[in-house]
């Protein structure tokens, strides 16, 4: 057997966090105002998963990375313009909603299906990566469900570090309570790792990587199967943006001693 | 008719953590408010579960079920999922309530998939309206809150920490039905734990005050020089004296990866915001942090907010804080430390 990994990363787009988000009620339930027009970014934790996957693939010869992305085709194409320049991967695109108000069970079903459909994917080399939660639905549940559907019961959530040991086992650091990591050792693939921040900075754009990726990205987008996902059985009674605006007292020209006293009183109060 | 199963796991010493007790009070109330629902069933998972069951003996639950064994003394997906699935199969609930601990956040979504249920996480409110259970949960990283209900059962609810009062009550002796489980073969060995950073105990979830340090602490100051060592001392002295919990902006913790000089005790686990945490503290003080939206969404559950920034036009001054002191945080915090030291 070859020593490389088959790294499948599940990740899609979310609205740029600097955008103002406003909920609206559409025919299919809640959605975001101008959702299709909002500038989007790769879901941050899924992005970390992708960079970790590419890094691992680089260090383990004969590895390969796939990115399985569920989102509206046109917006996926836009996202790929930037992501495809970062790290090498093969895209598996699914044409459906990337909105937050979809149900993780439905999303997991289409993702698992897509993973199963990847030609040449070898289960005993499979590391299934994703973010520990999305910045849209923020459920932190999808990856575990995809793993279950694929029958993978070695699963890790909120991973910040993965080390491949000399014997091929995987040492995994997961975030747990109290600013601690749980250290586990998994004998090897297949496993599910839902990543938190990891250890890698965002890779710089590399036009050469972009060119190679785009050769497979465009056909993948053309091939993208419709993947309708919603939240069947869910009745949204209300979606609101909480009042955020505070009546800020802006204190200028107050002597430092006075500010410090005011703060100490407040801290103790 | 709804039936409610409350699932909990023990801590490593066999006790129950605060999040578990919070979820218990929510589950008890839910079972009580659901017309005609039988009393709550409690399902326990752990190395040993009797002591934890005894601690809950006075809560009014109708039934205690447990799965115990050496495999369950640690937190691991395969064994936890098998145990929780066995409890759900045995209790046949329509609603499953549990705390969103790291252990259950990892295991229960898969269990839900296994038993054909649906799951909602990040739940911050539970109500019953005309026999219909409803929840509140947040979307888009605390940007918007939704109230919803759903038709599918079993419906798993993972409750956010700090959103419900912790159950308090009499201990006693509980009769625990042992539920048999076929433990799957596991390929994962739990080795232990380690701190995220040398000073990870600066993260104090129980603290009254969150102290956030932003990237400004490591930037060039009025004299044209950065003062990282001073910043480190000043921040450390303050969080210790005030027993505050230390948080960070993303820019500050990212500096490590970008090779800049950093505060030695900061790790990604300190990061508050969109891709960090959303801690719950009564008060928060932001220093040298610009108060951009991706950071401030992590302050959703901080009630009283103050900030110190040289820039009156920073985000905090635009309705994100109650008070913004336009001042040098080095000067102010040095004085604050002095005052705290005097008393
Ligand atoms: C996808 C995505 C996800 C993100 N997630 C997060 C997240 O989870 N958390 C997060 O924090 N950010 C997040 N960000 C980044 C966010 O947009 C900001 O870039 C970041 O919060 C800025 O950090 P900062 O305020 O510490 O730094 P800066 O923007 O550099 O601000 C430094 C501040 O320090 C002040 N200052 C300097 N010296 C002093 C002094 N002596 N006294 C007082 N004030 C001083 C300056 O006036 C300035 O306001 C995210 C961004 C993206 C795109």
- How many structural domains are formed by the residues of chain A? 1
Which residue ranges of chain A are poorly predicted, with pLDDT under 50 across at least 5 consecutive positions? Answer: none
> Which pair of chains forms the biggest interface, and how many residues does each contribute?
A-B, 87 and 100 residues
Structural class of chain A: alpha/beta
**Spatial order of strands in the largest sheet of chain B:** 7-6-5-8-4-1-2-3-9
Secondary structure tally: strands of chain A: 15
Largest sheet of chain A: 9 strands, mixed
Give the helix level of chain A as a range of percent: 25-40%
Describe the strand arrangement of the main beta sheet of chain A, using strand numbers: 11-10-9-12-8-1-6-7-13
Estimate percent helicity of chain B: 25-40%
Question: What best-fitting shape of chain B do the alpha-carbon axes yield?
Answer: elongated
Element-by-element helix/strand order of chain B: EHEHEHEHEEEEEEEHEHEHEEH
